[in-house]
Structure formats: C-alpha cells, structure tokens
C-alpha cells in the first residue's frame, strides 16, 4: 500500500518543527522592542501573563494534562517560575526598556546553556569536563569582545544604554540560569503545560508587585501594542509551548536545545532589519566566538 501524502511529508514537518520553534522564540526580544514604548516593562508582562493564563487554563482541562501532584511540587514550580519567567523576562524587558539592543540582549542571555552546564557541577554534583571550562572561557571572551565593540571611548557608558541596562540583563541571565538548575533539581515531576500555568501565575504575582511598587501602570493601547501583545501571548506563550510539547513527545527536545544557539544571530538579524541595530565587525566576531563557546560547553557535557 503506497504511503499517504501526510506520511510522506511527516519527516519534513518533523525536521522543520525545531527550526520553527527557535524562529518563533527569537521574536520575543523583538516583541519587547515593539511594545515597550507603549507600556512599562512589569506592567506589560503582567498583562501578558494574565491573558496567557486565561488561555492556558482551559487548554489544561481540554488536553487533560493533569496538575502538579502535591503542595510541595506546586511551591517548587512557583519558585522556578519566579526565576525562569519573572527574573528572566523582567530583566530582559527592563534592559531593552533602558536602551539595550535586542540582539545584544539575546546574546547575553544566550549564555544560559553555558553557565548552566558549568554550574551543574558544584550545584548538582555533575562532573565538569575540561572542554566545558574551555567553552566558558571562549564564551566570556566573545562577550567581552561584543561589549568592547559597543563602548564609546568618549563616554563612561555604552552606546545607547547604560550600566543599569546591562545589570538588568545580567539579572535576567542569572534568573534563567539558576531557575533552570532549580527546576532540574526540584521539579522533575512537573507536567509541562499545567506546570507552565503555575510558573506564569507565580511570575505574574512577582512582577505585579514590582509594577505596584515601581511603575505608574499606564498603558497606551495603540494598534502596535495590541498586535505585539497578541503575538507574544498567542505565538510565544501558547503556540511555542504547544510546539515544544509536540517535540518532546517525538523525542526532538535535544534538537531544540541545539538550535537555541541560533537564537542570538537570528534575533540580531531581525533587529537589524526592523530597527537598524548594528554591530561593528569586532562585535560580529565576538557573537560568533560566544556561540562557539556555548556549543563547546553544552556539547562537552552531552558527549561525556
């Protein structure tokens, strides 16, 4: 019996799904750039999380994915959500809000796999291979080259942004790194979809408190903001999560992890096209060196 048209195209679709996931994921930095002129960062994220939860909770019931088992797991998932979504997205959005280029932001937080692979040794008892230490050195060297290419010799600040923006993005990097390690250590029984609901809820409470304390909570409901918010909610927070679930079911999660190395250059290309963000040749070389360092650190762990 000849194969059906759908079965013939299935390998092609499966190969394209990880690439689609990473392409969608990289637009999160671009969405922040589009939306932040119309709302403050914490306020923006609280609205995004609220709309996302309104759509995700019915999906949990519809797909019958089940909820986390026990109050202790709920608490651990909540802590991981504050780190992975609260500190990470809050830092990214505030860094871009304060002038950090979207492409450079993606590159800095793209160090997360490198730092996670390196810190897994002392924090989780995993052995660190020499190639991982070399990858850390190479990656940090690339970051220094990128940041050095952005320095204005005639000023104490970086071109277009200050040290406060850099500090916010480093907080984001710390949040996603330690949140990933925390989740690996304490949330092994977390259902992906309902666990994400708990994470978004905890992160929303944290960022809502930040909005109450530090922001005026005013939103300009312009067409640009509404479209950006719709993209971030429907495409990133919903479609990308469902796509990730499909990949995990098919055993393709490792391919997604590898393609995350492409997020910084894809974001930089989008930012150049949409916002004319540019890196000088030294910065582009530094981006390439940083990605090589991340690959060395993560692949060194995977091949031991």
List the helices and strands and how they pair.
Layout: H1 5-35, H2 41-63, H3 71-97, H4 102-109, H5 112-124, H6 130-150, H7 163-186, H8 192-214, H9 223-249, H10 253-259, H11 263-275, H12 281-302
Helix pairs in contact: 1-4, 1-9, 1-10, 1-11, 2-8, 2-9, 3-7, 3-8, 4-11, 5-6, 5-7, 5-12, 6-12
In short:
This protein has 304 residues and is mainly α. The protein has 12 helices and no strands.
Q: Work out the helix count.
A: 12
Helix content: over 70%
Q: What is the count of structural domains?
A: 1
* CA-atom Rg in angstroms: 20 Å
**N-to-C span:** 44 Å
Major sheet characteristics: none
Mean pLDDT over the full residue set: 82
Q: Outline, from the CA principal axes?
A: globular
Sequence stretches where pLDDT stays below 50 over 5 or more residues: 152-157
Number of strands: 0
Structural class: mainly alpha
H and E string: HHHHHHHHHHHH
Q: Tell me the strand percentage band.
A: under 5%
Protein model, in words:
The protein is 79% helix and 0% strand. It contains twelve helices and no strands. The chain has helices at 5-35, 41-63, 71-97, 102-109, 112-124, 130-150, 163-186, 192-214, 223-249, 253-259, 263-275, 281-302. Helix 1 (5-35) packs across helix 10 and helix 5 (112-124) packs across helix 6. The protein is globular and about 50 Å long. Residues 152-157 have low confidence and may be disordered.
């Amino acid at each position: 019996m000849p194969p059906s048209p759908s079965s013939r195209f299935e390998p092609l679709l499966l190969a394209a799904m990880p690439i689609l996931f990473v392409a969608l994921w990289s637009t999160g930095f671009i969405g922040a750039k589009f939306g932040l002129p119309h709302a403050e960062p914490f306020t923006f994220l609280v609205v995004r999380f609220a709309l996302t939860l309104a759509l995700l909770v019915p999906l949990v019931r519809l797909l019958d994915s089940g909820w986390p088992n026990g109050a202790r797991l709920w608490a651990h998932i909540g802590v991981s959500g504050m780190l992975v979504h609260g500190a990470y997205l809050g830092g990214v959005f505030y860094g871009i809000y304060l002038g950090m280029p979207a492409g450079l932001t993606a590159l800095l937080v793209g160090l997360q796999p490198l730092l996670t692979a390196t810190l897994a040794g002392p924090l989780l008892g995993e052995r660190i291979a020499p190639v991982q230490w070399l990858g850390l050195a190479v990656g940090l060297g690339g970051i220094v080259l990128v940041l050095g290419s952005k320095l204005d010799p005639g000023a104490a600040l970086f071109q277009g942004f200050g040290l406060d923006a850099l500090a916010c993005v480093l907080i984001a990097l710390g949040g996603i790194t330690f949140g990933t390690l925390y989740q690996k250590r304490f949330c092994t029984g977390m259902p992906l979809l309902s666990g994400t609901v708990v994470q978004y809820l905890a992160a929303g409470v944290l960022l809502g408190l930040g909005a109450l304390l530090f922001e005026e909570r005013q939103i300009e409901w312009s067409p640009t903001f509404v479209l950006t918010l719709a993209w971030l909610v429907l495409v990133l927070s919903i479609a990308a999560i469902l796509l990730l679930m499909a990949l995990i079911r098919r055993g393709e999660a490792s391919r997604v992890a590898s393609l995350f190395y492409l997020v910084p250059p894809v974001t930089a290309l989008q930012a150049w096209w949409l916002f004319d963000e540019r890196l000088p040749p030294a910065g582009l070389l530094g981006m390439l060196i940083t990605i090589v360092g991340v690959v060395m650190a993560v692949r060194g762990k995977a091949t031991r």
